[in-house]
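To: structure subgroup
Subject: Chain for Friday's discussion

All,

I'm putting the inputs and outputs inline so they're searchable in the archive.
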Amino acid sequence: EVQLQASGGGLAQSGGSLRLSCATSGFAFSNSDMAWARQAPGKRLERVATIKSDGDTTTYADFVEGRFTISRDNAKNTVYLQMNDLKSEDTAKYYCNAMTANGLYFYPWGKGTLVTVSS
């Protein structure tokens, strides 16, 4: 059974930082490209960042470029999202998932972790 367990969310002040983790199991993590996505209340799911299986290539949505950093530890089957200079518009539930070669999400979503940024 595939598990995608995001954690590390919480309440942060505008300008603050949080580090999210997503512990995974049930699939070949070290061979999988990974992504973080988020969904704010009443809005569509949007991709935040991606990282290739070897960790060498990352991409970011324009709205987090320069503030967020995605990384991974293949020995721990875990992907991370360091979020700095948080803004109120970053308030959302954050999820991780593996990605297919054509950029689709692979598995059913986990429960995610809620990030709330107060202004």
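Points worth raising on Friday:
Strands lie at 3-7, 10-13, 18-25, 33-39, 46-51, 58-60, 68-73, 78-83, 92-99, 113-118.
The radius of gyration is 13 Å.

D.
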